[in-house]
Amino acid sequence: MAGGGTGGHVIPALAVAGVLRERGHRVVFVGTARGLESKLVPEAGFQLELIEVGALKGVSGVPRLMSMLQLPPATAMVYRLLRARGARAVFSMGGYVAGPVMAAAILRRVPLVVMEPNAMPGAANRYVGRFVAKALLSFKEAAKWFPPDRTEITGLPVRRAFFELPKKQRGEKLTVLITGGSQGSRTLNRAAEESWPLFREAGMQVRLIHQAGRETHAAIAERFGTAGLDGEVVSFIADMPAAFAEADVVVCRSGAGAVSEVAAAGKASILVPFPFAADQHQLRNAEALANAGAVRLVEDRDMNGRRFFDEVCSIKPEMGEKARAFARPGAAERAADLLETLARR
């Protein structure tokens, strides 16, 4: 299993690994000591083999040169690992950690399954696209980077709780969930705060649930206490499915995990792509849903209090059902099925 650095790479791979373990297979992860996999993989009870490799995207000069020099020895190490473990299949979520793993799998002719959750594939998956045994996609827009007979729309593994949320009937008070991820988002935090007087002056019945991030939530929460609005500002929401269940509208970034959760829950949403995402993949994700009328798309540079207020007021309930059309339950199980089939061959 390859994929590390961020939770967006590690958590879906862990979901697939969990299914494989339940079916009696041995699973080994490959990652780096500095990525999130170094914490999450051992905690989940899986073995982690460490390699030294750095990012090539978004770096230049000496760091880029060092990363390029690390690729051959890292690939050789994974090659030996695949041989020593008798690996029968390789699964990759992409990212720079996955580069040497995918290269070693191709060199050893071990079947390679990649899961590409974004409308614009990452560089690693684009480079190896023609060599994969199967590419599991969330968006049809990504299919052009892989052989047409080796792609399948499976979606991204999402917690079952999101799919099981009952449809919420909108009451007199509109509940808005704002989340920029576990670290928060300065753009969303600022825009939400600027919208408070607009909601109050309009007399709109609204409840704001705002995950602002650990560093800034205390100051924002103190100011919200005098805003005259219903709701709460918190640092982190541990039970996100429960927060989604309460929400009529979700305001968030458009990473693969966020859009997959919005689709699984069937929620109307306002997506604000992170402007510095690699290859603008968050913008491509949001565009794919916006083109289907499933979400409202606001670019980061355009998001402020007035725009926040106007977009919330313009949300239509049917957008949630259109978003649900993008939901794909059973993604982890389908990935495990394919890995088993390829391994047997």
CATH architectural grouping of the largest domain: 3-Layer(aba) Sandwich
Order of helices and strands: HEHEHEHEHEEHEHEHEHEHEHEHHH
What count of domains describes the coordinates? 2
Structural class: alpha/beta
First-residue to last-residue Cα separation: 19 Å
CATH class of the largest domain equals: Alpha Beta
Q: What does the oligomeric state look like here?
A: single chain
**Strands ordered across the widest β-sheet:** 9-8-7-10-11-12
Number of helices: 14
Write the layout of secondary structure elements.
Layout: H1 7-22, E1 28-31, H2 37-43, E2 47-50, H3 61-85, E3 90-92, H4 98-108, E4 112-116, H5 123-128, E5 134-137, E6 151-153, H6 160-163, E7 174-179, H7 186-202, E8 206-211, H8 217-224, E9 230-234, H9 240-246, E10 249-252, H10 256-265, E11 268-271, H11 281-290, E12 296-297, H12 305-314, H13 318-324, H14 331-344
Parallel strand pairs: 1-2, 3-4, 4-5, 5-6, 7-8, 7-10, 8-9, 10-11, 11-12
Helix pairs in contact: 1-14, 3-4, 7-12, 10-13
Describe what you observe in this structure.
The chain is of the alpha/beta class and 345 residues long. It has two domains: 7-157 and 330-344, Glycogen Phosphorylase B (Rossmann fold, 3-Layer(aba) Sandwich); 162-324, Rossmann fold (3-Layer(aba) Sandwich). Helix content is 44%, strand content 14%. It has helices at residues 7-22, 37-43, 61-85, 98-108, 123-128, 160-163, 186-202, 217-224, 240-246, 256-265, 281-290, 305-314, 318-324, 331-344; strands spanning 28-31, 47-50, 90-92, 112-116, 134-137, 151-153, 174-179, 206-211, 230-234, 249-252, 268-271, 296-297. The strands form three sheets. A six-stranded parallel sheet has the order 9-8-7-10-11-12, with helices on both faces. Strands 3-4-5-6 form a four-stranded parallel sheet. Helix 10 (256-265) crosses helix 13 (318-324). The radius of gyration is 21 Å and the shape is elongated.
